[in-house]
Amino acid sequence: MRVRQLVDGLLENALRASPAGTVVSVSVGVAQAQDATAQRAQITVSDQGPGLTPGDTADAFERGALRDRYSGDRPVGTGLGLSIAARLVRRLGGTIAAGQAPGGGAAFTVELPVSPAGG
């Protein structure tokens, strides 16, 4: 349920930022954990919107940072969604990162621990 809440929030942000007729995509895969002993689920939501600057990626998960920066220039939400997503990911034991999508736009990548089968 929490993973769905997380993906829904990231999709809502991507759809808001993307011009009509562009693509918003979700990819799901498996990533190796940093210590190489376990696998992690990887979810990426990317869009073809205006994208993020390096400064944006540095503070994208701070409450209201992007809303305050872009409220007069492009569609923005309340400024709470990405900070809530980051807190939720941390509570689930994962990581979240903001970056550039291939071909332009923004991409948000979440990695979450995978429970062993039956665990």
Short overview:
The chain has 119 residues and is α+β, with helices and mostly antiparallel strands. It has helices at 2-17, 54-59, 65-70, 81-91, and strands at 25-32, 39-46, 95-100, 106-113. It has a 4-stranded antiparallel beta sheet.
Structure explained in plain terms:
By secondary structure, this protein is α+β, with helices and mostly antiparallel strands. The chain has one domain (2-113): Heat Shock Protein 90. Helices cover 33% and strands 25% of the residues. The chain is built from 4 helices and 4 strands. The chain has a 4-stranded antiparallel β-sheet with strand order 1-2-4-3. A hairpin with a 5-residue loop joins strand 3 and strand 4. Helix 1 packs antiparallel against helix 4 (81-91). It is globular. The chain starts with a helix and ends in a 6-residue tail after the last strand.
Radius of gyration: 15 Å
- Pairing-aware structural class of the strands and helices? alpha+beta
> What integer is the average pLDDT?
87
Number of DSSP strand runs: 4
